[in-house]
Amino acid sequence: MEFEEVFIKGAFLLKPKVFGDSRGYFFESFNQKEFEKNIGVINFVQDNESKSSAGVLRGLHFQKGEYAQAKLVRVIKGMVLDVIVDIRPDSPTFGKHFSIELTGDNKLQLFMPRGMAHGFVVLEDDTVFAYKVDNLYSPENESGILYNDPNLSIDWQLPESSLILSEKDRKLPLF
Fold this sequence. Notes:
Elements: E1 2-5, E2 12-15, E3 19-21, E4 24-26, H1 32-38, E5 46-52, E6 57-63, E7 71-77, E8 79-86, E9 97-103, E10 109-112, E11 116-122, E12 127-133, E13 142-144, H2 167-170
Antiparallel strand pairs: 1-2, 2-10, 3-4, 5-12, 6-11, 6-13, 7-10, 7-12, 8-9, 8-11
């Protein structure tokens, strides 16, 4: 697997080696030893999965304080535009965002350290999104940023009228 740090410090794009033939494909989606060698020791404690229709936008979410979460995300089937926003006040990229298309075909994964707001918009129907987290979810410490905050200027690649958000995500505060 190839590990490439993106411009947000501590965030990495993971590119697995995919072996395919007429029967299908095989790849190693996670290897603790390689992960620790390239990124560091992260103790993932939970795996999550969601299935969504095209146009669904989830985010931008984060956990506060000691409940912050590092995440390793990927798409099993379909396509998303995945977005992270650096919310670490002491970071040189504070307030900046990074986005990448993750697909079931490209098998790319994005690792984000603690201190990121995270969201994604689904670009294909029946997309299956999976992620590992290093801290358990705490409803009392959940927070977020409004997806269309003008200060962030995130291009979600879809017209506003086609986005499908939860009522909770529509009410998130500005950055």
